[in-house]
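Section 5.1 Outputs to date
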Amino acid sequence: MPYRIFPPAPPLRPYIDMYWLLSGYRSEQEVITLMPDGGITLVLNLGEGIRSKHYDGPIRNEGIYLVGTMLRSDEQELYGENRLLGIQFRPGAFTHFYRYEPMHLLANRVQEFERKMFPDLQKTIRYFVPYLDQFYLDRLSSPKHSLTALVMDIEQHGGQIKTGALAKRHFITERQLERQFNQQIGVSPKEFINLTRFKQAFEKMQHNEGRRSLSDIAWECGYYDHAHLTNDFKRYMGATPTALILSDFSKTLASPPR
């Protein structure tokens, strides 16, 4: 099924990962598995109904949905004519555009988003990227305690940093760190750090092609041994590394929409 990625305007790139479009027709039901990435996504459904494992009901036509920070994979059932448009925010960046309820209340959930807070539907359909760029440039306003620098620090370390060291490097107490991560990302700093480490290990496995052992990858990514990495695979993806990499749905995980 065609999946296209569109980069936002350069000033938005520290805050928005991408806009994406998933479209096509499926005569039979298709199930895709999406991995957790630590960010918030807004999804506009312009096609037929879709069913999410984490949303108790169909994602209806012209419905707008907020996908909270996920700590587990999601399975989505696609059928018929599909046209999904997504706005994928960087971890902690959603609060640069929206003053919304604390993100920990939305974690691991898919829920309807207020239409009045979403870009104009017709302009989004007609102009897409240029209109979304202007809409979010006009809304861009940093919260009092931005997490942009902290998220970047965690990612640059590949998730191999302790919360105490992170707090000290950014002149913030561990208690403040915990509160801000829960409010702006939806998970604790320790959970986000662990997810970042797992994402790095997963990416290395995706591009490994059998050249290196699981133990080598685990050690490089800061795991005590391959058993700990396997436990994270089960936790985040619901499958062992071997089962996941060999499965058909692994092809959808390299750079999927959420």
